Amino acid sequence: MTVTGRASPLCVRLSDIPETVLVPAKYLSGGSIGAQIAYGSDMSLLVATRQPGYHSRPHTHDAEQLNYVLQGELYVFVGDDGFLARKGDVFRVPRNAVHWSLVKGTGPCVLLETHAPPLVGDPGVVDTAVALVEDGAALSVTAIGSEWPSTHDTASVEERVLARDRAAAGSEVLS
Q1: pLDDT recorded at residue 136
Q2: SS3 assignment for the chain
């Protein structure tokens, strides 16, 4: 997408990037997620807001992902394990790893996400994402999309991770 009135094709204000629905409802067990996305030749940057109750289905993408939690917290599941990421935490999702997340709190979780190569290949995303490249260069960007495998056993992974966190929280109270 092109934003008019930019002094340079390499800079845009976040407030000028339209929000997109990052994950269609058919791939969610609950909640919603909106994101503002900018991308260059080799990576994308998202400010993504996951609402309370957000629960994505397992997915993969051929892009490495690094995230910084700006606000709130969420459970992140990667393969057969997971962790609780809170405000101030940085976490990585390896390229092509099956992963999904869950917001259990009462407030939204806001993440600053990076993906390399750019995660702008999903339907509708490239229509709202802003390319920070020289004129015409956006046409040569390799846009990565998400795959949604249906065979991953999320219930047992989530149950084990959440039980481990409950036990850890209980032992902290006893200390």
Answers
A1: 67
A2: CCCCCCCCCCCCCHHHCCEEECCCHHHEEECCEEEEEEECCCCEEEEEEECCCCEECCEEECCEEEEEEEECEEEEEECCEEEEEECCCEEEECCCCCEEEECCCCCCEEEEEEEECCCCCCCCHHHHCEECCCCCHHHHCCCCCEECCCCCCHHHHHHHHHHHHHHHHHHHHHC
